[in-house]
Structure formats: structure tokens, C-alpha cells
Design brief:
The structure is a single chain. With about 325 residues, the protein is α/β, with parallel strands linked by helices. It has one domain. The chain is built from 8 helices and 5 strands; from the N terminus they run E-E-H-E-H-H-E-H-H-H-H-E-H. Helix 2 packs across helix 3.
């Protein structure tokens, strides 16, 4: 299996749209991080290298080449620095896994997610969502031929999946595999009772949110109503701005969040939970690749960690 191919620059991540963290820090100096993109961001724009200038991430001169070296479009929003492709992720006969890193609810990310699914025409589109919440985002995707009004990049990817008859699946927690692995990781790390309480609180919050999404999906299936479960994350640009402006703002947000993550280590409960999520997502994506090519939409903060773990399987 080949290792994930990186472009010259690739931002580190922002957090999942479907979670909010109830955990509290282990020490007063480390602020609790939320899973919303405005509170927890990418540690970097490129793993080891820095995206020191946001203009490097956009602009007409940036032809968007995917991380496997293939050329996508000249639209800077499809910039390959946010993409990882792992060949034969589940073995020699398996399909490729393409990870599309996103800043949640950002217009550039929604565009990239939709266009990469259209371009790759995969058998499966995997979303960083709990399986129980995924039907809501599929309902959002059916609203319009344009980019969906609700659900950001997850709905945009689901919309493109419907166009190419790809299966849409959620690969994020909570799932039975996640709970089992989380229990094992807590045991292996000899987590304190206080840490276990905060982990449990955060997981309970995420589980409640997933169930609310499922209830909203049931309403959408039976009526014409579309319930917006989450308030969209506000950004400094919108879909009406030129592509280069959107791409530049997206990279600038990744750069700013990198500074935040470098200033503070995540609290232990958050680290335990997020590392477990990444392990589970990587295992699920590697398994899905046995059915053909996979395109997965994940927050930028998970992009490299998930790619590396898939490559090791």
C-alpha cells in the first residue's frame, strides 16, 4: 500500500461540525476546545511545513493539482494541498481512498467537496458524520441542483454522490466500534476518573446531537420542512465572492487556527476522543475501499492523521 501523497503544502485541521465538547480542561492553562471550526483549527497548513502566507493557498496562478499529482481544475478552491489520496488502501485489489480536507461550512470547502466527488466518481462517499445523522444531510442535498442551503460541505458531497450513484455513509462517532475502541484506549492510558467523566460527557453530548439530527431527518422525510440543527459557522466570505477570495480566506482561517493549536495542547479527554475517532474513521475507510474507490470528506484537523493511519493498514 502506498503512503498518502502530499502536495507541497497541506493545512492541519479544523474540527467536526457535528460535535460540541462538554469536556473541561485537565489544567487551567489549557482551554477546552470545541469541535466547531471556529474554536479548534488546523495546527498547520501543511503538516510539517507552514502556510505562512495565505496568498500561497489561492489566486489565479494556483492550478489545483490533487495530491496524487493529477490535475483537477484551475479553480483555486480545488487546491490539491487540501487533498490526500491513498492507493489500494484496503489491499492490492482495493480501490483508492481520497480524503478531502475541509473548513466546516466554508464556501470554498463545500465547492471542493462537491467537485472532487464529481471528478473521482467513487463507489462510496464517506462523510465525517455519525451514521445516524447522515440521513439529514442527504435530505439537505435533495433540496436543489445548486449547492445545498443547509449542511455545508457534507450536504454538497452527498449531492454529488447522488449524481454519480455513489453510496453515502457516515464514518464518525458514535458507533459501536468507536465505543469499544474508546474504552480500550482509556484503559491503555490508565485514564483518571476525572478524565473518564469528561470523556463520557463529551461523548454523551455528541450522541444527543446525532439523535437530534436523526429526528430532523425523519421530519424532512415526512414533510417539506427542513430543520437546521446547527447554526452555520460564520466566515469572512460567502458563495457570491470570487473563487480566489474564497480560497484565500479558507487558507487564512487554517493559518489562524494553526496558531491557536500551537499555543495550547488539547486537554486529555479531547485528545483521547479525537484520536479514537481518527482510528475508527481510518479503519472504516480502509474497509470501504474493498468495494471500490472512496472519497471521504473530513475536517482539516483530521486529514493527515487519518491518511497516515489508512496507509499503515
Amino acid at each position: 500500500m502506498s503512503a498518502p501523497s502530499n502536495s507541497s503544502e497541506s493545512p492541519d485541521p479544523l474540527e467536526s461540525p457535528s460535535e460540541s465538547v462538554d469536556a473541561t480542561p485537565d489544567s487551567p492553562s489549557a482551554p477546552e476546545q470545541s469541535d466547531s471550526p471556529d474554536a479548534s483549527g488546523e495546527s498547520d497548513c501543511s503538516g510539517a511545513s507552514n502556510c505562512s502566507d495565505a496568498s500561497d493557498c489561492s489566486g489565479p496562478a494556483d492550478s489545483a493539482s490533487a495530491s496524487d499529482g493529477s490535475q483537477t481544475t484551475d479553480d483555486p478552491r480545488t487546491n490539491g494541498q487540501f487533498v490526500r489520496t491513498i492507493s489500494a488502501a484496503g489491499g492490492n485489489d482495493a480501490g483508492d481512498v481520497t480524503l478531502v480536507g475541509v473548513v466546516h461550512d466554508h464556501p470554498a470547502s463545500a465547492y471542493r467537496a462537491r467537485e472532487l466527488v464529481r471528478e473521482r466518481d467513487p463507489a462510496t462517499v464517506a462523510l465525517e458524520l455519525p451514521p445516524v445523522a447522515t440521513p439529514l444531510y442527504r435530505a439537505y442535498a435533495r433540496d436543489s441542483d445548486a449547492l445545498p442551503s443547509f449542511g455545508g460541505e457534507m450536504s454538497a458531497a452527498a449531492q454529488a454522490a447522488d449524481e454519480c450513484d455513489a453510496e453515502v455513509v457516515g464514518v464518525d462517532a458514535p458507533t459501536p466500534a468507536f465505543f469499544a475502541r474508546l474504552a480500550r484506549n482509556c484503559w491503555d492510558e490508565r485514564a483518571s476518573l476525572g478524565t473518564l467523566r469528561r470523556v463520557a460527557s463529551g461523548v454523551a453530548s455528541v450522541t444527543r446531537h446525532a439523535l437530534v439530527c436523526r429526528a430532523a431527518a425523519a421530519v424532512a422525510d415526512r414533510t417539506s420542512l427542513r430543520v437546521e440543527v446547527d447554526d452555520p459557522v460564520a466566515h469572512d466570505c460567502d458563495r457570491s465572492d470570487p473563487p480566489a477570495v474564497q480560497a484565500r480566506d479558507e487558507c487564512e482561517q487554517a493559518r489562524r487556527s494553526q496558531s491557536l493549536l500551537r499555543a495550547f495542547d488539547p486537554p486529555r479527554p479531547v485528545r483521547l476522543r479525537d484520536e479514537t475517532r481518527e482510528e475508527c474513521m481510518a479503519a472504516e475507510l480502509a474497509g470501504l475501499s474493498s468495494q471500490g474507490d472512496v472519497v471521504a470528506v473530513v475536517g482539516l484537523d483530521h486529514l493527515d492523521a487519518v491518511a497516515e493511519q489508512i496507509a499503515e493498514k
